[in-house]
Amino acid sequence: MVEKGSDMDWFAEQVEAAIGELPPELRAAVENVAILVEEEADRETCREIALGHPLELLGLYRGLPLPYRGSHYAGAEPDQVFLYRRAILLYSRDNALEVADCIRNTLIHELGHYLGFDDEELHRIEYGEPPEEGED
């Protein structure tokens, strides 16, 4: 459900609260990542990931996931996690979810990409499914 006061300032406060509520072990694992809020994915992003409409994308991770970094990575620009306000508000309303829950879930999902998980692995984790054959 869309909550009253769902303007950008209110939304940014919800994002700050979600960051503060991350499990300590997740917060400790995340370094040099900028969390950015935008209204929606821009045209270039939509083209790049073959997105039909910007409101289909709740969040996006841009960077080099931890498992793929080597010693050459030192001093790199921060990775980025984008949270798209309009898409999250719409998804929350359409699925009768609290906006804060949708923000938190999207943030954790995108940070999962930072940690090296792909969408399929994150789906299994999010829904409590067992790992595929051959995984730990």
From TrEMBL:
Q: Which InterPro entries does the entry mention?
A: Zincin_1 (IPR010428), Zincin_1_sf (IPR038555)
* SUPFAM superfamilies (UniProt xref): Metalloproteases ('zincins'), catalytic domain
Query: Which superkingdom is the protein from?
Result: Bacteria
Q: Which CDD domains match?
A: MMP_ACEL2062
Q: What Pfam families is this protein classified in?
A: Zincin_1 (PF06262)
Among Gene3D superfamilies, the record links this protein to: 3.30.2010.20
The protein's name in its UniProt record: Metallopeptidase family protein
Q: Native species of this protein? A: Thiohalorhabdus methylotrophus
